[in-house]
Structure formats: C-alpha cells, structure tokens
Backbone:
C-alpha cells in the first residue's frame, strides 16, 4: 500500500529520523539481498537481460545465475521479470537534507541528489561548514553538491551589484572555489539570471573555468537567458567561461520557442560544440512550467542591490509597464501559478480577480522577493524533443517542499510518458539518461551502472505500473510503481513506504579516499 498522504507529507516536513548506526555499519550488518529473475537494465544503454543480482554489504557482489541454496541469511526478492536498474541520479535538485526527508525522491526511484545549483551553495555559511554538518548527518538519500558561484562571490567580498571586481577579489573568488573543490564539491554552478550572478562579467567567470578543470569538475549553469532569441548566445557565453572544464547546461529549455524544429536547431548548436571538442552536456525535466522566484519578471534596475522602495517611489509607472509587457510575452497572468506566500496555489489572474485589481499592481505589491511560482512558458513538443537527445540527462530541479510536481514526479513521468504511454525512448536508453549518463557527467565512478563491485543503489519496478501522481493542483502526491529502492545496500523504500535511512554524503573521489565517492 502507498504511504498515506498525511504521513508522507509529515515525513517531508519533519525530515528523516536519525538512524542509530552509521550508514556503512548498517550496510555491513545487512543480511544481503538476492534479486532473482529480474530484467536487468544496467544503466549503460545495453540491451536488457534476464539475470540474478546479489548484494553483499553496500556493493553488488555478483550478477548472473545465482543458486539460492548456498546463501544463508540472504533475503530473496523474486523479480518476476520486473526491471532492476541503477538508482536514478538527480543532477539538479534543491532542498536541505539535514532537515528534510527525500522520501519523495526515493518514491520515484532516485537514490542520489546533487545540490548547490544555480549559483547557490547549500547551507548558510561556507561549503566546508556544510560538508562538516553533512558528515555528521544521516540523510535518507545520497547527497552530492556543486559549489555555487554566487555564494562564493559574496564570501569573496564582492558586492552584489559589482560588475568589475578587482584582481584581488577575483583571485580570492578563485581560491575559495579551489578550496570547495578540494573538499569534495563535484564542480561549479552559476546562476547568471539571478542576483548576484547576473552582475558577473566575462573576465570574472573565465578565471574560474581553469580551477574547475584542474580538479576534474564540471561547470554547470543556469544560463544568462533561456529566451528564444537569446539562448544560443547564453550557451556560447557559458562555454567560453567554462573552458577548459567540462561544460553542462542546467534545465535546458527554450522560453517562448515553439515546435520540434526549434529544438532540433538548439540541439544542432550543442552538437557543433561537441564536434569541435567541447565536452558539453545538459539536463532537463519533463514539464512545461519552470519554477522560480517572481524576481525573474522584474527588470534589473528593480532588483537588489537597488532599493525597491525607492524604485516604487520614483519609477512606479515605468516598472508597472515593464511588468505588464513581460507578463504578456510570458503567456499572461493565467500562466503564473504562485507557489509560496499567502497566494500559493492560485494563478496571478485569480489573485488579481479576487482582489479586484489589475495583475501588474499585484506584482508591484509582491515585489521581486515576494513569491516563488510555476511559470508556464515552454512548448511541450519542443521540450519533449530536447529530452530525447542522448546528451541530455533527466533531472528534476525539484525539492521535497517546492510546489511543482517535478519534485515528486520527474522520473516517474519520464518512464510513464516517454517509455510506456507514448514510446519515444527505449527503456534501456531512458534508464541510462537517468543513471549512467548523470554519473558520467558528475564523475561518479561506482554508481549509475549495475556491475560487480559497484555501489548497490538499485530500483526495482514494472514500467507499466509507474505513475507520476503529482500535478500542479496536488504537487506533493508521491509517485507509484517503484516497488523497492536500495541505497548503499540497504532497503530504503519498499511498497510505498520508507523503510530505512541509508544515504550518505558523496564527495568527489579525487578529494576523499575510500569507497562511496
């Protein structure tokens, strides 16, 4: 039976209960798992095959035909022809695993999340302090992170509105990034559409690519713009800034763009970079609404570090006109579903109608920091085509508490819509794009594929029963159909319930010796 909705939401809100034993000790004490007669989809894209798989401790010990009689104390899971795949790796996620449960991710087959996105490192202080706190925590999912450029920028003493930091400030920024990467961050993220990343210019960004490359990390970016007429230029900026590091585009999309032909044109541009030797990848989610702060609607002169009260006092009419023009282009007030604050769950049009006011005036009152929202600005055919590209991984951009269904449904929707309901991607490729591909992008050497000796992050499911139940009305409904999820050799989710806490902090292997990196 699925976990009752009230209990599921309580687990998300309250966070995971702390387990008594360390993760590695719990895995070592586990009796072992034998998956018998499964359809093995190994995460490499290779054809599925029928096999048994034995887990001992935290790793996969054997794959093949395994007799159960000689195995004492091992739990036997009868696969019955169900798919056994690597646990999915969510390359782009949000939230705080120190305080929140990621049962919603486990329910959709994900065993690893990558934080530190869009230029913001996790935690409230330095990334090193967050690493120390996470090393003491017992999350219910594996957690990796990137170092956020915006967070590092502030730690380096660069004011938010500064467009040309001094040479000393840039050197300090690069040194802080170097320290984060040495501590185990998997790369750098930038958020060039947000404050303070939007103020960073070419010289500042170009100083960071060599640091990322020296550590073997990946440079990911929420681009300067995702608009139809600017997205290629924004990708070019990101590629140039990242050299010579591996380059990755976060939540690939074309805002305002229409149709498969537009998607093909963008994918061709990405392919030209790869043909020229640039290691370029991307990720995307299977929804047509983004989810971010409404600050994205406001012109730069109305954003921090500018004084918003002063802007209202001196340029109110100009700002009102700019907001109205922006919303008209973004499909109008009915295409903005507020997800936080007192108006959560209602569109901007509904809020304005209930208040008897024009929607630009509602936005003026909310201000750039007033709410987060789902923005319905993407074309379904275009985004579906992007998702099918072999160099585009599947990632949620979601969190346990965000009011967008992607945080509870992304991987289930991917299987349900693209493999089963309207088959556009073979199951083996769909699994690779959610496991082996993101592992290779991160540089995770022992996760994302099923092979002997790899970490035992596993998901058992029947694709025909997978359902993404979350929608924009009920964004917290857990996914169904992923019958059993194993994290580091421990059964973490089974039959709709979280059954164990076995996650761990992952650090880049070059930084920290030992298994699990």
Residues:
């Amino acid at each position: 039976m699925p976990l009752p909705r009230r209990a599921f939401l309580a687990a998300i809100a309250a966070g995971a209960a702390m387990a008594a034993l360390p993760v590695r000790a719990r895995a070592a004490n586990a009796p072992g798992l034998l998956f018998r007669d499964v359809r093995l989809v190994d995460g490499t894209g290779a054809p599925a095959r029928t096999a048994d798989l034995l887990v001992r401790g935290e790793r996969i010990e054997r794959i093949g035909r395994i007799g159960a009689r000689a195995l004492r104390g091992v739990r036997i899971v009868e696969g019955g022809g169900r798919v056994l795949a690597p646990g999915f790796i969510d390359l782009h996620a949000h939230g705080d695993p120190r305080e929140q449960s990621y049962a919603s991710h486990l329910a959709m087959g994900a065993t690893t999340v990558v934080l530190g996105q869009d230029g913001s490192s996790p935690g409230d202080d330095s990334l090193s302090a967050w690493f120390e706190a996470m090393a003491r925590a017992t999350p219910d999912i594996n957690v990796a992170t990137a170092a956020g450029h915006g967070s590092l920028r502030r730690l380096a003493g660069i004011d938010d509105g500064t467009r040309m930091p001094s040479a000393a400030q840039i050197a300090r920024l690069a040194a802080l990034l170097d320290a984060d990467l040495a501590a185990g961050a998997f790369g750098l993220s930038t958020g060039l559409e947000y404050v303070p990343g939007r103020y960073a210019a070419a010289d500042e960004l170009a100083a960071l690519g060599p640091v990322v490359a020296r550590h073997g990390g990946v440079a990911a970016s929420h681009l300067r713009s995702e608009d139809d007429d600017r997205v290629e230029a924004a990708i070019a900026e990101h590629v140039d800034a990242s050299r010579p590091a591996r380059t990755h585009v976060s939540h690939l999309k074309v805002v305002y763009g229409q149709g498969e032909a537009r998607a093909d044109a963008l994918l061709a541009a990405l392919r030209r970079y790869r043909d020229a030797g640039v290691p370029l990848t991307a990720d995307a989610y299977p929804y047509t609404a983004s989810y971010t702060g409404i600050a994205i609607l406001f012109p730069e002169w109305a954003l921090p570090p500018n004084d918003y009260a002063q802007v209202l006092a001196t340029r109110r009419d100009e700002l009102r006109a700019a907001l109205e023009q922006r919303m008209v282009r973004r499909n109008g007030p009915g295409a903005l579903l507020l997800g936080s604050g007192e108006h959560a769950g209602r569109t901007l049009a509904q809020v304005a109608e209930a208040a008897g006011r024009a929607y630009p005036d509602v936005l003026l009152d909310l201000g750039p920091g007033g709410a987060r929202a789902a923005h319905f600005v993407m074309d379904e055919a275009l985004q579906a085509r992007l998702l099918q590209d072999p160099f585009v991984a599947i990632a949620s951009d979601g969190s346990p508490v965000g009011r967008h269904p992607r945080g509870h449904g992304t991987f289930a929707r991917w299987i349900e819509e693209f493999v089963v309901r309207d088959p556009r991607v073979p199951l083996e490729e769909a699994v690779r794009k959610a496991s082996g591909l993101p592992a290779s992008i991160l540089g995770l050497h022992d996760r994302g594929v099923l092979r002997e000796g790899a970490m035992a992050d596993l998901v058992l499911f029947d694709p025909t029963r997978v359902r993404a139940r979350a929608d924009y009305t009920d964004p917290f409904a857990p996914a169904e159909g992923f019958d059993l999820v194993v994290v580091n050799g421990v059964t973490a989710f089974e039959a709709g319930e979280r059954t164990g806490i076995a996650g761990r902090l992952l650090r880049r292997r070059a930084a920290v010796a030992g298994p699990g990196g």
Notes: Residues 1-28, 511-517 have pLDDT under 50 and may be disordered. DSSP finds 17 helices and 21 strands in the chain. Residues 308-329 form the longest helix (22 residues). The radius of gyration is 23 Å.
